[in-house]
Structures are given as C-alpha cells and as structure tokens.
Design brief:
The complex is a heterodimer of chains A (172) and B (294). Chain A contains five helices and five strands, in the order E-E-H-E-E-E-H-H-H-H. Chain A folds into two domains: 76 residues, Beta-grasp domain (Ubiquitin-like (UB roll)); 72 residues, Orthogonal Bundle (DNA polymerase, domain 1), CATH 1.10.150. By secondary structure, chain A is of the alpha+beta class. Chain A has a five-stranded mixed beta sheet, with helices on both faces. The N and C termini of chain B lie far apart (38 Å). Helix content of chain B is 33%, strand content 27%. Chain B is globular. By secondary structure, chain B is an alpha+beta fold. In chain B, helix 5 runs antiparallel to helix 8, helix 9 runs antiparallel to helix 10 and helix 10 packs antiparallel against helix 11. In chain B, the strands form four sheets. Chain B has a five-stranded antiparallel beta sheet with strand order 4-5-10-6-7. A five-stranded mixed beta sheet of chain B has the order 14-13-12-11-15, sandwiched between helices. Chain B folds into three domains: 45 residues; 115 residues, Uridine Diphospho-n-acetylenolpyruvylglucosamine Reductase, domain 3, CATH 3.30.465; 113 residues, Enolase-like, domain 1 (2-Layer Sandwich), CATH 3.30.390. The chains are: A alpha+beta (172), B alpha+beta (294).
Amino acid sequence: MCEIGSQIAISMKVNGKTYEVLVDPLSPLSSVLRDQLRLTGTKVGCGKGECGACTVIMDGRAVNSCLVMAGDADGSEIVTIEGLASSGKLHPIQEAFVETGALQCGFCTPGMIMSAKALLDSNPSPTEEEIRRALSGNLCRCTGYHKIIDAVRIASKLIGRNTNQEPVLRGS
Amino acid sequence: MLLKTEFVKARSLEEAFCAISDRADASFVAGGTDLFVQIKEGKRKPSRLVSVREVPELLGIDLQRGSVVIGSAVPLSDVASSAVVAGHAPLVADACLQIGSPQVRNRGTIGGNIGNASPAGDSITALIASGARIRVKSLAGEREILLEASFLGPGKTVLSPDELITAVVVPVIQDHTRVAFEKYALRGGMDIAIVNVAISLDMVDGLVTDARIALGAVAPTPIRAVEAERTIRGNRPSSSLIEEAARVAARECCPIDDVRGTASYRRHLVYVLTKRALAKVCQGNVGRVWGCAR
C-alpha cells in the first residue's frame, strides 16, 4: 500500500468483520469508524489524545483512535465498544459499569471500558493501583473516578468467575 | 479533510528513504502522537508523511557490545516493559513509563520522543543521563550523535529532514552505577513535566567517580547540569554535598514562565528534585532505580 493520492483503500478487521474502506489516509481512525463504518459508540472528545474518549483496541493494545492516521490502520485488527456485547448479552465490564452506576453523562464510558478491557485482557486480576494507571489516559468530567475503578474491580471478579465456569451473580 | 498531505507507509528503510528524498518538506512519522496533533492544529504541513512505524529494521531491542540498542520505532510501552531495558538501562525504562498515558505509550515511539525534541521529553533526560547516542541514517550514510548534542531548541534538532533516527544506543548500566529519575507534574498520567531530573552516579569505594545530571523543561533543550556534576564528582557524598550540588543545579538552569509553572518555581523544583534524586542514589543499593515519582 504505497500508492500516493488523495484517497487510498485500506483493509481492516473491526469487531471480527473485515472492511475494505476508501479513506483519506490522514483522516483519524476515529472518523473512519464513526463516519464511514457508522460505529458511533467510539466518542471523540479532544481530538488530540488527551481525554481517551476515543479509545479502541488496536492489535491488542489500547490506543487513542483520534491519533491513529487511517493510512496506518491498514491491515490492523480493531475492537470498538460495539464489539464487546455478544448474542445480546453485555460484556462483564459493561455489566459491572451498569451495576455500579459508574457513569453519569456516559460520554467517556466507551473509552473507559475499552481501556479496562485492554487491562483485563493482559492482567485479569489487577490491583487498584494497576487499574488507576490503566485508566490514567481516560478523563471523566462528571462522576469522579471511584465508581469507575470499583466497576473495573468487579468486572475482574466477574470475568474470573466466568473463566472458572461458575455462575455469575450480578453485583455480588 | 482540509489536509493535503500525501501518506506513504514504508515497509523497509529503503522505501522510507526513497519516499523522503524525492519530495521537499516531507517528514517521517512514527506513532503520530505529537506530529499528527501538530498537523491537525495547522502548526505543521508536510507535503508528504512517510510512516516508518512498521519498518522491521527499526523495531528491535538488542544487547550489542555493551549497549542496549533500541530501534527507533519501538513503542514507548515496549521500551518500558522490556526485560532487556529494565535490566540494563533501568533509568530509561522508568522514564518511558511516565510518558503520557497507556494509549499514548502504545503508539508513541522512543525515536519519535527524541525527534519531537521537546525540552520536557521524559525519555530524553533519562537517555542523556545514561550517556545515550542516536544512530541516524540517510541515503548519504550513517552517523552516531551523542544525544545531548542533537538538540538546538524546542522542536529543533541537528538532523536534516532526510535523516532518520534508526536506533538509540544506551550504554549498559555498570555494577557501580546508581540511577534515579524524578518527574514533577500535576497529574500522574497525561501530563507534561513541569521539571524532570535524571541522575546517574558512578560510585567506587564510597567516592563519586563520575556524575551525570540531566534536567528537563528548564531550558530550550534538555541540558546537563555540568556545574552540579563537577560539585560532586571526586567527592564522598554527604548531606551537605548533596545540598550544595542541588543548589548549583538550580542556579545553572535557565527556565521560563509558562502555563505549567513560573521560572522561579521551576528553579526551586530543580533544587528539590535534584536533592531528592541524589539522596536516593547515595543511600540506595547499587544498580537499582530509586525515585519513581508518579
């Protein structure tokens, strides 16, 4: 993909589905997701990598999708907030956010959840300090962070129980 | 979009140099965490961006002849989590962990942090205190530059536009070397240092045989506090010597007032952080990192 011009074709896998998209290589990945693929769960706050609202998981890592140039996303594998629930069932992190009431306006929530997912995928039982560090690139302007951190801790327990094939008791 | 910048994703060094050399005002880009923001804000308008993020030659971390060689396109998160870097250049691992946020460290690269040439760059002070050099390549050839000699001012380096940082070469920490990194910022994450200080002391039989003190965000470029180094070099550390060296460091920096702090506040921070870092390394165990202020 070395062609030069105003638009280029890129291929990427988003939430398990392969997309071939014609993009301006310098448009941010967040715009491609929201405006071209209509995956508007990913929010854009500051547009300069400060707030984390646009966090998605790219090739297994949390990134600010507003800072990824579309041309650089060619060949990548992306997970957005839309990719978490399956068969009508919320992901345990989403369940925990609902159960804990870890949101008010909800604008930062998709980014928070994607950062939490990147953390729990690599570290299923994080300490509070590790949770705080993993979320340090995500700003919330309404709730304060305590309930969000509680939610990630609860999600970690829910995921642990799921893995151990035990029934999940909401909020316990 | 209003941007009319071409984009080329290079798959090899050769492709990267071809793409950069046949166009004026072209620029290399790696993670884009700094440059892409500058482009969005209209502060930079390169005619072409040459993405080197996936160039295999720029992606390794190796031990070579007494140095840790870090490929310039290695993400900061990989530098921070590398066992090789943690074991042989712990100051650099510690500083890289304090840059930005997890998201920024996953995209931003060590070469990009250097090329961006911020006077406050966290990795830069740590690398300067570690005696790092950068390997720079262009179609004309290859050269190695001492890192501290590669900055001219905020955002400015001695590199020409067609030169690419290919690797950072960090001398392996010696058994008798003690290091510390101190950063002061208002938040633990996503915050630029008001001041950062990196220190590397060689101690033999209780004497400081060599000292390197690097200061960030207190001059147009990251600097060495050479007078403070001279103050402690050849001496036996004591609380009065540490006090004196910290005062000298505060005197020899030249900070400015800006949105993050005043010049006098920064000067005071240089005194406090230098003193803290020196106290930690002088009391600490050999070869260990002390002072991970977060």
